[in-house]
């Protein structure tokens, strides 16, 4: 059986970001279709595959119908008080930009 198209979601795994995925991103993605099939939002931190997280990230990026990245700031630097972004998410955005087909 063919799986429905997935949206790879790159975002912070922090507990305070869970409602954003559950209440905003997941319902929005469920409302979309690609070629008549509903899309499904997936995150590697809630995967059940048992593969290494890097393998799952690369597989998710290379096979997703769409990549959605939450690049909002996640904290403030303790010395400068400047906001910073999640480095892991920014890495995933870079990988997606480097390897995606048109």
Give a brief rundown of this model:
The chain has 102 residues and is an alpha/beta fold.
Fill in the keyword field for this structure:
single chain, 102 residues, alpha/beta, two-stranded antiparallel sheet, 3 helices, 7 strands, globular
Protein architecture, described:
By secondary structure, the protein is an alpha/beta fold. The protein is 36% helix and 23% strand. It is built from 3 helices and 7 strands, in the order βαβββαβββα. It has a 3-stranded parallel sheet with strand order 4-1-5. Strands 2-3 form a two-stranded antiparallel sheet. A two-stranded antiparallel ribbon has the order 6-7. It is globular and about 50 Å long.
**Number of helical segments?**
3
Over all CA atoms, what is the radius of gyration? 15 Å
Identify low-pLDDT runs: none
Shape: globular
Distance between the termini: 26 Å
The portion of residues assigned to helices is 25-40%
Structural class: alpha/beta
What is the strand arrangement across the widest sheet? 4-1-5
Biggest sheet layout: 3 strands, parallel
Please write the string of helix (H) and strand (E) elements: EHEEEHEEEH
Number of domains: 1
- Residues in β-strands, percent: 15-25%
